[in-house]
Write a structure and sequence with these properties.
single chain, alpha+beta, Jelly Rolls, 15 strands
Length: about 300
Amino acid sequence: MIRVISWSAFSISERTIHEVTRTVYCRAQKKLEKELLPIGGSARLLKITEEASMKARKTLTLISIFLLSAMTSQAQRISRGGPSPAGTVRVDLSRERPGRESTKFLAVVGNWSIVDDGGKRVLGVDGRSWLRGQPAGSLAEKARAIYGSRNEEFIDNVKAWAYFPYAVAKDIPDFHDGDISIRFKIVAGQLDQCAGILFNLKPNGDYLTVRFNGMEDNVVLWTFNKGVRKFVKKGSENIPLARNQWHTLQISVRGTNLQASLNGKHLLDYILAEPVSGKVGVWAKTDSVSYFDDYTVSR
């Protein structure tokens, strides 16, 4: 795969840097010759230009090294799924270790781990081994990791909603306007078969989620606010999905306007009470066994 890096990310090749360096050097040398020729002989000019050329070469070499280093560093961040200047972040799970907690997502509620799905590493939630909806281990430490010292109310709200597993994307500090998309696979679940996008997660634990439920075949927007879970709006039609197959869920936020689609089909429009601002992640419900991949945020 060829990745295109924007100009703000030093979208230049090594060859381009050498060409720029050569052009700058030649122009500087011509200017120096023009200025010095009337005031000295050719020998004095040659000596001065040689000394100036040496200094210019050193300076331009340092500039070249800096630009190449910056370009390489940026390319590495993008290849790891980090933020790009164009505003797109794709969470890359390819280097994660199956059977372990993800290094890209912080499990707050439920049993989340990296799963090997046909040779590909994906994020999985397994509600079957989750005992009566207990929050994830070391909840206090994880709350601090998300919102620092302001975590007491956050912890109280998490415990109130302990039947709704979720994990927070670590590399996305704040989401405002933009798009969030995920691929998900419903594997199992006797009570529920859910997969959703969590967003607008606040320091007190309030959040929004748009989810698909395989038991109901629908997309629904829910709010979780001060310990109260509330249905907001259901998608325009029910869409039955096959289990154990990958599907795509996407939300788009523009100011207070929210839209949601499933497998490219537009299903939901809603005007939010206020603009979105908060952390984001993935969401499930009760005993759902669901897999997630290709978590992408575009702003």
